[in-house]
Amino acid sequence: MSRILVVDDEPAIGWSLRERLGDEGHTVEVAASVEAAVDSCGRFSPDALLLDVRLPGRDGLSALPDLKALAPGARIVVMTAFGDLDTAVRAMNAGAFDYLVKPFDLESVSQVLARALADRPDAGPVSSPAEPPCDVRLVGGSPPMQAVFKQIALVAPTDLPVLVTGATGTGKELAARAIHAHGPRRDRPFVATSLAALAPSVIESELFGHVRGAFTGAAADRTGLFDLGDGGTVFLDEIGEAPLDVQVKLLRVLQGREVVPVGSVQSRPVDVRVIAATNRDLKAAIVAGSFRDDLFHRLNVFPVAMPPLAARLDDIPQLVEWFLARRGGPRPATTPAFLAALRARPWPGNVRELEHAVAYACVVARGGLLGPEHLPPVEAGGPPGTAGSGANDAVAAAVKAWVAEQWPADPTAAGDLHDRLVGHVEAVLVEEALARVAGNRTAAARTLGVDRATLRAKLER
To answer: What is the pLDDT of residues 303-358, one digit of tens each?
Structure first.
């Protein structure tokens, strides 16, 4: 089998990975610091490294290029419990093969390593990670946001079209700006427009420009957004609102990298990256005949799905701190009851609604501690009065998001959605129950309402 170097200063993690990977036939060595890892690379010649970010002394990300130079044929998988977009981008730009967020299950590690070892690269130059502008900020550390960070880190260095999907207020434009900021076009324009905000009669001229007297060589009366964004990125929000005739021209831009202004028959070359976003179900729009199938496939080369706030409630404290910091001046403090009240709401408007609620609370609190009483009234149709309904709404939203992501292209074929979803939910429930009772299986079984033998069987599965 292969030689695996685990670089982690937590003895329990090092031991678990050594046992699991050793059982799979790998030769495993554990290093608790970058210095120890450098020494191991010199004599152990690993085929793959599992590298923690936070280590005593030098951190894992800063050491990643040096470790790649010492083991040029090895795949490096970064591990962290403190992931954010910058960490994901730095890891991918520095040459990491993949990015795991703690806590992870050992099966996930095995799967990632199997993929890494199956396609080991030749040694190559390591690019320098780029620092993003400070105003481009996607906030969060929850698993759904970690998945978004990883997708952005993967696609940003490329020139592929990206389709960002998600409900209103989930941060689709922020994701688009982050992709631009971390890509090779970062020093060129980022031009954004919402097609839903434009009258159908002017969308074409806004995007592609408008000329008068084209046959006499007259200059353009209106410069289109694609001309303004030449060399950079054009972000088309609410792409599902584009009329069919405009969709035909957008397809031409993506296929031939050229635009034809309104009133002209001559095309002009443009060099832009296109990122589109929508809160609509474009596949349903294709069936209804309001969206072109060929344009969808041109835009959906690399999809990025933004999760609803209800699926990432653990990010609320971090988001609140970010909103308060952006207000400037003295920062009001939050109370546990305030944060608990925020978690209990359904947030149909997602992060945007949360930001407005925090701003409202700051005004009402007049500089004092923020409490539940300072929040705006829940809109009609908000959370029911039953206890725990906010959490139930969050679970429902998370299930809907998972189903939307996993729904097969051919829903008539046999599938296993039910078994997979139940397996995921059951695994999280059991792990969370054990964590809350410090690993006491008897107490966990009692709280879960199952006998100890059933719990043991679930753990084995």
So the answer is: 999 999 999 999 999 999 999 988 877 788 999 999 999 999 989 999 999 999 99
Q: What are phi and psi of 10, to 5 degrees?
A: -90, 110
Is 153-305 in the same CATH topology as 3-118?
yes
User: 399-438, pLDDT tens digit by residue?
Assistant: 776 776 777 766 667 778 888 888 888 888 888 787 776 6
Query: What six digits make up the tokens of 450?
Result: 């199952």
Question: Given 3-state DSSP classes, what are the helix, strand and coil percentages for the chain, each rounded to the nearest 5?
Answer: 50, 15, 35
State the architecture of 317-385 in CATH terms.
Answer: Orthogonal Bundle (1.10)
How far is the C-alpha of 109 from the C-alpha of 10, rounded, in Å?
16
Nearest to 76 by CA among 20, 39, 37: 37
Domain 3-118: CATH architecture, name and number where available: 3-Layer(aba) Sandwich (3.40)
Q: How far apart are CA 142 and CA 170, in angstroms?
A: 14
Domain boundaries, the chain: 3-118, 153-305, 317-385, 408-460
| 153 HSE (CA, 13 A, CB side) | 26
Domain 153-305 in CATH 3.65.10.20? The answer is: no
In sequence order, what are the residues at sequence separation of 6 or more whose Cβ sits closer than 8 angstroms to the Cβ of residue 242?
A: 195, 203, 236, 250, 291
